Amino acid sequence: MLPQEFIARKRDNLPLAADDIARFIAGLVDGSVSPAQAAAFAMAVYFNDMSVDERVALTLAMRDSGKVLDWSDLPGPVADKHSTGGVGDNVSLMLAPILAACGVYVPMISGRGLGHTGGTLDKFDSIPGYTTNPDNALFRRTVEAAGCAIIGQTDDLAPADRTLYAIRDVTATVESIPLITASILSKKLAAGLQALILDVKTGSGAFMSTLEKSRALAESLVSVANGAGLKTGALITDMNEPLASAAGNALEVRNAVDFLTGTHQDERLKEVTLALCAAIVEITGLGTAGEARAKVEQALASGAAAERFAIMVGALGGPTDFIERMNDYLPAAPHVRDITAEADGIVSGIDTRGVGMGVVALGGGRTRPTDSIDHAVGYDRIIGIGVKVERGDTLARVHFRSQDDFVEAQRRFRQAYAIGESAPRHPLIPARIM
Ligand code: URA
Fold this sequence. Notes:
Blueprint: H1 3-11, H2 18-30, H3 35-48, H4 52-63, E1 79-83, H5 91-101, E2 106-110, H6 120-124, H7 136-146, E3 148-152, H8 159-169, H9 177-190, E4 195-202, H10 211-227, E5 231-238, H11 249-261, H12 267-283, H13 289-301, H14 304-315, H15 326-329, E6 335-340, E7 345-350, H16 352-364, E8 378-380, E9 388-389, E10 394-400, H17 403-416, E11 417-420, E12 431-433
Parallel strand pairs: 1-4, 2-3, 4-5
Antiparallel strand pairs: 5-12, 6-10, 7-9, 7-11, 8-10
Helix pairs in contact: 1-3, 2-4, 2-8, 3-8, 4-9, 4-10, 5-12, 5-14, 7-14, 9-10, 12-13, 16-17
Uracil binds next to helix 9.
């Protein structure tokens, strides 16, 4: 079938066969399918959707466009988490070592932040010496030694996704659930996982802001992943406020290390992290629901997870005493100042996207993939929805470089906070799809 005949079938809402999908995706990588044809296909999918079978076929075709990692020599299950991205979302930094301490191997391939959400790799870039692009041998050695390694995407995994995503990005076709599903899962399948947990965010700081849309994405991801042979579950989690009390790269690393060592643990962050970890322990068969929760709590409380984090950082080129001397290593902004409440009341709502854009405005995030970022800046001691404040009380602290930056960061932060008479209740984990 010619590419134009294939596109016409989707345009006319006729079913696509798995081998035709595979040929089209292979053509996208070898150049026999043009970017214009890929764009037309993406737009036809945007309007006419795909069945679960078509989504599975697209996902597998994109996985097979590059290398698929093989971890069969490891003596335990291999699993990972994927988050749809949030603000103050440093869960990966804790989840990977907690799972490693439970006997799960976590070769985590993460991304950089774009827009209002932070990226896990940007957080690790604030640790001096830590490499997020090790060669394959070092990646494997780290996973074997620490049980986890958090690194960046390599060019040889799911290259069709990179090509198609770049086309979608400039043709208004990113917001398509079947295309998002295939994009996310092709990369996870190429990483050679046996189990996956999805953290699908919902609320004012999420990619999908309503519960209905988040659920549709989560259900698509879970059914397609399982259909492609990857045991997968999803939690839908609240992003109507930053998850950690810190937002900004080095600040979130500090928050994560404090969490692992038990120095400071944000409550909502702890609940989401442990729930995701327990779900993986359950999916991989290392424990029943009850046992899984006890196992992950023990991995954290015993210090075993902190130890795994330290081994991972050292193995990937960071300081071997990073946990003990984190303040000597992490970059710090020259100024820190409180942002205070302008009225008495209760924090009744947070425009979480606005808080994330405040970090970007400080220089801590990027709006174009090529932007460089300042790892030291951001907010910490962020208070959440439902907290009672009086005029002059601290809403957060801002870490900044210039007075102009402070004024702008304060303006954005105050604008993002609604102070009223009462606060809505947003369930922290409104749905589980397992
Ligand atoms: N994240 C991805 O990896 N792909 C998408 O299409 C959207 C979000």
